């Protein structure tokens, strides 16, 4: 009998490397624009330490995360990781491009490139279907196109958006994902870029650190919207993965939503149970960057308060600067809880064995 996976990394960044690598998968009319502008949404914030770990640069050269063979040795083999869920690098902002036709073409080319390169190198790599969520009808077609590849195990979108993700504009995406049994994941880094709104409700921060500190409020916005707009009543099979958005905000949001629901439920008549119950059943989160209080038992208490031990999945964010070492994190957790986070919850969500 095959032993179940012990460690699944649910946020690993695979880079395209040179833009030329995407050209064989991209219609000729887009070549010049892709080579000249890439995703074309820019980044207003400067990180003085960069974004990538310097030691993750492949010996053969190129961008960190761009060599699948080196990543196997440098990351998966080193930490005995059974599976790495690939979430892309520098490409998520394509949903925030002003031209939907260009964004749709790039998303499709990326998915074909991912299937024909990384996913053929090792069965330990699992892919995320990139979509342009600003064009939901086209995004749904892309999900339908790629879902037959069983190594593509989720759909991924930028967390920066024009409007909260519960709104009906996005529902064709969720219908397609549910139809194929694929969870929807969002990843930070695009807040304030392209056609997205400001990174905070009060406007635009000035520094990279200030912007990075406050990313979880965007995740609270999306989770709040998904529940209150009735997405999980309309799509009862849908799971939504909030990657790299933190965890400790869960009690505040759950408790506030449940409290308000008791008095204001007539404003959301489609909800049949407490908001926190939808969150527990349909929302999944990842660990990096996990909150690190001075007393580790305080974080365990937050997990116990919210049922997070069944919602949270392990992630390292390799090869980014704030990478979490699998040997260092989760030490303060009871073994049963730690095992669920390290692999059990991801096994259930993605059907891995």
TrEMBL record:
<dbReference type="InterPro" id="IPR032465">
    <property type="entry name" value="ACMSD"/>
</dbReference>
<dbReference type="GO" id="GO:0005737">
    <property type="term" value="C:cytoplasm"/>
</dbReference>
<dbReference type="InterPro" id="IPR032466">
    <property type="entry name" value="Metal_Hydrolase"/>
</dbReference>
<dbReference type="GO" id="GO:0016787">
    <property type="term" value="F:hydrolase activity"/>
</dbReference>
<dbReference type="GO" id="GO:0016831">
    <property type="term" value="F:carboxy-lyase activity"/>
</dbReference>
<dbReference type="InterPro" id="IPR006680">
    <property type="entry name" value="Amidohydro-rel"/>
</dbReference>
<dbReference type="GO" id="GO:0019748">
    <property type="term" value="P:secondary metabolic process"/>
</dbReference>
<keyword id="KW-0378">Hydrolase</keyword>
<feature type="domain" description="Amidohydrolase-related">
    <location>
        <begin position="31"/>
        <end position="352"/>
    </location>
</feature>
<keyword id="KW-0456">Lyase</keyword>
<dbReference type="Pfam" id="PF04909">
    <property type="entry name" value="Amidohydro_2"/>
</dbReference>
<protein>
    <submittedName>
        <fullName>Amidohydrolase</fullName>
    </submittedName>
</protein>
């Amino acid at each position: 009998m095959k032993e179940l996976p012990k460690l699944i990394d649910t946020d690993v960044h695979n880079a395209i490397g040179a833009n030329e690598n995407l050209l064989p998968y991209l219609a000729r009319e887009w070549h010049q624009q892709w080579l000249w502008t890439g995703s074309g949404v820019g980044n207003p914030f400067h990180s003085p330490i960069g974004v990538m770990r310097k030691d993750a640069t492949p010996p053969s050269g190129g961008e960190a995360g761009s060599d699948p063979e080196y990543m196997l040795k440098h990351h998966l083999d080193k930490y005995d990781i059974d599976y790495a869920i690939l979430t892309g690098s520098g490409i998520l902002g394509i949903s925030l491009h002003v031209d939907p036709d260009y964004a749709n073409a790039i998303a499709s080319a990326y998915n074909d490139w991912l299937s024909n390169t990384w996913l053929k190198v090792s069965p330990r790599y699992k892919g995320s279907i990139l979509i342009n969520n600003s064009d939901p009808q086209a995004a749904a077609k892309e999900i339908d196109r790629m879902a037959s590849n069983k190594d593509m195990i989720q759909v991924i979108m930028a967390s920066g958006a024009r409007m909260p993700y519960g709104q009906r504009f996005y529902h064709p995406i969720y219908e397609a994902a549910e139809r194929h049994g694929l969870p929807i994941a969002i990843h930070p880094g695009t807040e304030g870029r392209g056609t997205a709104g400001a990174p905070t409700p009060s406007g635009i921060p000035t520094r990279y650190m200030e912007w990075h500190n406050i990313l979880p409020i965007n995740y609270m916005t999306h989770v709040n919207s998904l529940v209150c707009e009735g997405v999980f009543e309309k799509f009862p099979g849908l799971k939504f993965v909030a990657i790299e958005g933190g965890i400790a905000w869960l009690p505040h949001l759950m408790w506030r939503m449940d409290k308000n629901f008791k008095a204001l439920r007539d404003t959301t008549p489609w909800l049949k149970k407490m908001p926190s119950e939808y969150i527990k059943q349909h929302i999944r989160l990842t660990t990096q960057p996990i909150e690190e209080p001075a007393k580790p038992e305080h974080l365990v208490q937050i997990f116990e308060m919210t049922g997070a031990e069944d919602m949270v999945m392990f992630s390292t964010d390799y090869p980014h600067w704030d990478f979490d070492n699998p040997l260092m994190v989760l030490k303060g957790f009871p073994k049963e809880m730690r095992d669920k986070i390290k692999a059990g919850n991801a096994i259930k969500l993605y059907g891995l064995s």
